[in-house]
C-alpha cells in the first residue's frame, strides 16, 4: 500500500478513532491528542500496523498501545471540579473494562475484534464488557432532558434512560421548547438530536443552555457523526450514531454522567 493510499484509508477511520478517544477521556482536547499521537506513531513507523489485515483494528490497536504505555493520564490543569471527581471515580473501576465497553457499544466491534485491539483473549473481552456494564450501571443517578423531534425516538430514549434508574425531565422538539424545559427543570444530562422539528439546531440549543447553566454533560445523537468529528472546531465528547442500539445509549449515558462535556459547539 502506498503512503497516499494509507493516508486516505486512515482518513476514513479517523473520525471514529476520535469519537472513541473522546468518550474514553471525556473531552475533545484529550481525545484528539491521543488520536494525534496514534497517527504520529504510524507515520514514524508503519510496522506498527503489521500483523493486521483490518486497518481499523490496526489503528485502534496502535491507539491502545499508546494509551496503555502512557498510564492513561487524562487529567490536566483545565479540568473542572466535576471532571476531577469523575476521573477519581473512574480510577476505581476494573482496569480495561471501560475500554472494552466503549469498543463494543460505541464502535460496535465484535468480541474477537476487541480482543485483538486490546491484545487479550476473547473470553476476557466479554468479561470486561459485562463488568463495565455492572459497575457503571450502579454508579450515578440523575435528571435527563431529551431534545428530539421524532416522538418515537424520543419515547424510546426516554424508556431506556428511565430503565437505567434516571429521571427524565421531559422531551423538547424545538430550540425554544428546550430552553423553556431546562428553565423549569435543570438537567444533569442532555440527550440531543442535531436537527429539530422547526428546522432549528439542537447544537444551538445546547450551546445556549450551557452558556446559561454551565457544567452539564451532553450526548449528541445524529445520523451523520462524521460531521461533528472533524477536529477543526470544538465538538462533542459524546456522540451516538443513528440508528442506535439500547446498549449504545446505556453506555453513552453512563459515560457522560462521569464527565462534563461543556465545550462550546457550532452548527
SS-based class: alpha/beta
How many DSSP E strands?
A: 5
Low-confidence stretches: 260-267
Shape verdict: globular
Radius of gyration: 18 Å
What is the oligomeric state here? single chain
Helix content percent band: 40-55%
For the record, give the distance between the C-alpha atoms at the N and C termini, rounded to a whole number: 36 Å
Summarize the structure.
The protein is α/β, with parallel strands linked by helices and 267 residues long. Helix content is 54%, strand content 9%. The protein is built from eleven helices and five strands.
Structure commentary:
- The chain has 267 residues and is of the alpha/beta class.
- The chain has helices at 3-25, 28-44, 55-69, 81-90, 97-105, 111-118, 122-137, 151-163, 175-184, 202-213, 246-256; strands at residues 143-147, 167-172, 189-193, 218-222, 239-241.
- Strands 2-1-3-4-5 form a five-stranded parallel beta sheet, sandwiched between helices.
- α5 (97-105) packs across α11.
- The chain is globular and about 55 Å long.
List the defining traits of the structure above.
single chain; five-stranded parallel sheet; 11 helices; 267 residues; disordered C terminus; alpha/beta
List the helices and strands and how they pair.
Blueprint: H1 3-25, H2 28-44, H3 55-69, H4 81-90, H5 97-105, H6 111-118, H7 122-137, E1 143-147, H8 151-163, E2 167-172, H9 175-184, E3 189-193, H10 202-213, E4 218-222, E5 239-241, H11 246-256
Parallel strand pairs: 1-2, 1-3, 3-4, 4-5
Helix pairs in contact: 1-2, 1-3, 2-3, 3-6, 5-7, 5-11, 6-7, 9-10
Amino acid at each position: 500500500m502506498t503512503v497516499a493510499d494509507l493516508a486516505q484509508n486512515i482518513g476514513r477511520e479517523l473520525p471514529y478513532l476520535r469519537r472513541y478517544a473522546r468518550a474514553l477521556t471525556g473531552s475533545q482536547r484529550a481525545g484528539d491528542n491521543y488520536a494525534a499521537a496514534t497517527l504520529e506513531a504510524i507515520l514514524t513507523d508503519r510496522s506498527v500496523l503489521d500483523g493486521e489485515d483490518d486497518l481499523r483494528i490496526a489503528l485502534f490497536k496502535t491507539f491502545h498501545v499508546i494509551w496503555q504505555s502512557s498510564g492513561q493520564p487524562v487529567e490536566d490543569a483545565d479540568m473542572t471540579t466535576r471532571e476531577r471527581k469523575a476521573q477519581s471515580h473512574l480510577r476505581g473501576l476494573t482496569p480495561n473494562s471501560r475500554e472494552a465497553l466503549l469498543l463494543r457499544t460505541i464502535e460496535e466491534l465484535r468480541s474477537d475484534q476487541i480482543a485483538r485491539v486490546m491484545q487479550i483473549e476473547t473470553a476476557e473481552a466479554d468479561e470486561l464488557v459485562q463488568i463495565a456494564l455492572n459497575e457503571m450501571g450502579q454508579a450515578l443517578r440523575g435528571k435527563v432532558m431529551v431534545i428530539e423531534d421524532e416522538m418515537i425516538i424520543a419515547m424510546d430514549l426516554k424508556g431506556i434512560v428511565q430503565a437505567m434508574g434516571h429521571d427524565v425531565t421531559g422531551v423538547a422538539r424545538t430550540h425554544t421548547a428546550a430552553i423553556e424545559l431546562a428553565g423549569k427543570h435543570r438537567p444533569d444530562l442532555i440527550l440531543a438530536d442535531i436537527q429539530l422539528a422547526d428546522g432549528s439546531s439542537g447544537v444551538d440549543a445546547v450551546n445556549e443552555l450551557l452558556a446559561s447553566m454551565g457544567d452539564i454533560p451532553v450526548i449528541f445523537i445524529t445520523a451523520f457523526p462524521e460531521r461533528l468529528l472533524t477536529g477543526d472546531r470544538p465538538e462533542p465528547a459524546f456522540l451516538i450514531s443513528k440508528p442506535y442500539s439500547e446498549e449504545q445509549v446505556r453506555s453513552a449515558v453512563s459515560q457522560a454522567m462521569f464527565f462534563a462535556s461543556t465545550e462550546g459547539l457550532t452548527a
